[in-house]
Amino acid sequence: MEKICTIFDCDPGVDDAFAIVYLKNSEKFDVKLLASVAGNVEVEYTTRNLRGLVKALDWDVEVCEGAAMPIMGRQVLAGEIHGKTGLGGYEFEDDELAELSKRNAFDAMVDVLENNDKTLIIAVGPLTNIALLLLGRPDLKEKISEITIMGGGLEKGNTTAAAEFNIIADPEAAEIVFKSGVKVNMAGLDVTEKGDYNWDIHNILKASNLKITDILTEIMLASFKRIEEKRGSKISLHDVVAVMYHTDPEIFTGKDYHVVVETEGVYTRGQTLADRRSFSTTEKNAHVILDLDEEKFRERLIEVLTK
Question: How many domains does the chain have?
């Protein structure tokens, strides 16, 4: 099976941790680079969490640090959901960290694109790193096969009534990505909130007695309590959905739309707005993933995470 040349950009983050393990264990991707970005927590923590997960997976892959701040505006974080350091309350010790590349995320991404025919970019945090790449080296757009993001939502937000976290954390970056001309797949709240994590899944992972699933279940324990207290809502593995879209596309459905990002609205900054008019003539710039088979999602999640 030919693997997909891939750059994975993330801000670990509880659901990022599950997505990273899924990415590695699925064996569908030839991952050239893992890049961190500030998002759920500050970049020093997202980088540390990424390094810890890579070491726990015994994964030989380059890990680079990316942007610490959004392109414009104030920084928005999600520590109230993910905890101060990003993984609920779980922390990796210094001797549990993979090596950090001396290259920054921008330089490493450029190198991957220049030296491969086509590369998939999966971005499950704020889109700052990807926007900087597109701005700095627009000549490399043709080397990107597609950009799949976890972000946005057509019906609602989760940070504000209008905006999902990854988009409102850097709306200008998201606007650059959607306007880039590169094919964009948008896994927004419409579909990612259907990627549930529950106690049945938790207990199955725990019973597998693997080092990495022990880490994942410990990370998730604190998160259950925090999310219930803060939002009274279920836990969804948002970022896993963006990865699974490429391993099991048959369990997903979606539609092509012209999507824009609101960057100026007092109440709507960070909103992803799709032109859903039946008579619209706007050019479709994004495939919006809207639904998934929830039973097959859970089956595939357990199968891959317990490899």
Answer: 1
